[in-house]
Specification:
single chain, 69 residues, mainly alpha, 4 helices, globular
């Protein structure tokens, strides 16, 4: 995967819902497929050494709250 492709994946992931937000009430019968897609993208990011939980901060540093740690 090229650097541009990886950046595009990070941007797309930053707009995906968090898995905890996906439920049958909000997404209907597609909720499991959406959860599978989120997990697939997370796994791909991890395979490339990127922490999925840090992607939003990388893509949108001005709108991401600072960590308390």
């Amino acid at each position: 995967m090229t650097a541009d492709e990886l950046h595009a994946l990070k941007v797309a992931f930053s707009y995906m819902p968090q898995a905890i937000e996906v439920n049958k009430y909000e997404y209907g019968d597609d909720f499991q497929r959406i959860l599978d897609h989120i997990e697939y993208v997370r796994a791909t990011l991890l395979e490339h050494g990127i922490d999925p939980d840090e992607v939003s901060g990388d893509i949108n540093p001005d709108t991401t709250p600072n960590s308390c740690y």
